[in-house]
Amino acid sequence: MQKIYIILLGVLLLQACIKKDDVLPPVSKDTRPLAAVLQNNYTYAMFYTAVERAGLDQVITGDSLYTLLVPDNSVFASAGITPDSLQHMDIAVLKKLISYHILPGAVTMATVPQTIDYPFKSIAGPNVYFSVPVKNGAIPALHINGATVKKADIIAGNGVIHAIDRVLEYPAATVKEYLVRTPRFSLYTQALKQFGLLEGLTAPGPFVVLAPTNKAFLQRGYDSAAIAAMDTLHYKKWLFGAAIMKTGFFFKTDFKDAPLPNDAPVYVTPDCLMVFRSDKIGLALFDYIHIINNYTPPYYGNPFVYGDMVTLDDPDHPALNGVVHGTNKLLALPDSLIIK
């Protein structure tokens, strides 16, 4: 018999579970200042160029301690940033971005609590979030805003470097701002606005938004004209609002660092259940357990009648009031939520 776990979100509850064991030892030590370590390591040449252009090289040369979250040259390339584009990036934008990769103080692996999404303030102002696996016996690892630390604890004379596998995104002011400025979410943004839900994403939050990409809409036959033609009075309002969670936030790697129970943890909304199955998420009827244990009409064991099971194909886009995760499909299909 299947069981059910109610979570708010279960991952979020584990943020209170803090341990300090099972940490990685320092990888290397260097008595030179952080700026010199970067300058003399070609792997980090693009990051050091960015630091110089942003006028931050003197900041990390003095006696004060700092922690650098450093994407190497290959990571910049994967993000579409070339040496040439780096040289032409607006200085103010660049300074804000690089400052988000610098933390005051020396944050070594040993000083990070064994929990998920533990905040450290960047010199830019917004927090970055560190996660260490909370499961006993898990392989020691460190994730930052969902990025993986490739090499931890490169110790310098005035701080520490963690090499990361992603250029961290500077948080948008609000989830709404992120969606509005991002072309691949234009259809979802249009739908939220049409159903009166977009402005709500300027509230303090925090929110998690499971935002379907334009491709997800188009593969179901909904382009901009089709969305505009939808009469909002004929559909349940949560058609597009069900993808908005309002009890906290998470990054995709949190599910590895704080694994959920195997037996269908769910997030309860006023209208349906959001069910987490392995790496997929779906919207189910409230009598979920009865349905999955009975292969009889009308559901034949399938409680996911509202739309598709989705995966987080485009995850971890931070805002000051939440996180946006791009999904590959529609959690709820318009035809399933017509008011009859």
Automatic annotation (TrEMBL):
Top-level taxon in the UniProt lineage: Bacteria
Pfam family, one: Fasciclin
Residues making up the signal peptide according to the UniProt record: none
Regions that span the bilayer: none
GO molecular function, one term: cell adhesion molecule binding
BP GO annotations: cell adhesion; extracellular matrix organization
GO cellular component: extracellular matrix; extracellular space
PROSITE patterns for this protein: FAS1 (PS50213), PROKAR_LIPOPROTEIN (PS51257)
Domain FAS1: 31-168, 172-331
UniProt protein name: Putative surface protein with fasciclin (FAS1) repeats
Species whose genome carries this gene: Chitinophaga niastensis
